[in-house]
Design a protein that fits this description.
It holds the Pfam family LRR_1. Keywords: Leucine-rich repeat, Repeat. By secondary structure, the protein is mostly beta strands. It contains one helix and 13 strands. The protein has a seven-stranded parallel sheet with strand order 1-3-5-7-9-11-13, with no helix packed on it. A six-stranded parallel sheet has the order 2-4-6-8-10-12, with no helix packed on it. 27% of the residues are buried.
Length: 193
């Protein structure tokens, strides 16, 4: 027998699902949430911003997220590990990528150089290795770039001179070696080094 209660319950579920589908921002910041990042977020076509900062999330970033049209991903201060998925390079709408203070390892995927709209890239305090990808030379909209406290190798790349919009550059204890390129003086917007 179909009761009014069941009708109301089903209606509440439908409204909740509609709300989640139309949602453009998912902020679950600072709730001390344990667990893993859900690949199912890809089923929310209007989702633009993901902020799971300041939690206890572990595991990896789902490669499925690379099919989304996000503008911002913030996973600051969690327990995420593994390699940064190259699929994130498909999210050309991304303007902010904050992966700071986790346990990501391996090389930074060169595909992230395709994120031409990126203004903020924070990869500090991880276990990243290797050279910075040459594809990063095309990230001309960067205003904030942080890679300190990693295990990179090689020298500070000359291509940072291409980042004319850059306001903040943090590379201390990154593993990169000097000298600081002399053309850094061309970065007239730089206020923090």
């Amino acid at each position: 027998m179909f009761s009014v209660f069941h009708l109301m319950l089903n209606l509440a579920v439908v409204i909740s699902l509609m709300f989640l589908t139309l949602m453009s921002r998912r902020v679950l910041k600072g709730y001390s949430l344990p667990g893993m990042l859900p690949p199912q977020l890809v089923k929310l076509p209007y989702l633009k911003q993901i902020d799971f900062a300041l939690n206890y999330l572990n595991g990896t970033i789902p490669k499925e997220w690379g099919a989304m049209q996000l503008t911002s991903i913030s996973l600051l201060v969690n327990r995420l590990s593994g390699e940064i998925p190259k699929e994130l390079g498909n999210i050309t709408t991304l303007t902010s990528l904050v992966l700071e203070a986790n346990q990501f390892s391996g090389v930074v995927p060169h595909e992230l150089g395709s994120l031409i709209n990126l203004g903020t890239m924070m990869l500090s305090s991880n276990r990243l290795i290797g050279n910075l990808p040459m594809t990063f030379s095309g990230l001309r909209n960067l205003t904030d770039f942080r890679i300190n406290d990693n295990n990179f190798s090689g020298t500070i790349p000359d291509f940072i001179q291409n980042w004319k919009q850059l306001e903040r550059l943090e590379m201390h204890a990154s593993g990169l070696q000097g000298p600081i390129p002399s053309n850094i003086s061309l970065m007239i917007n730089l206020t923090e080094l």
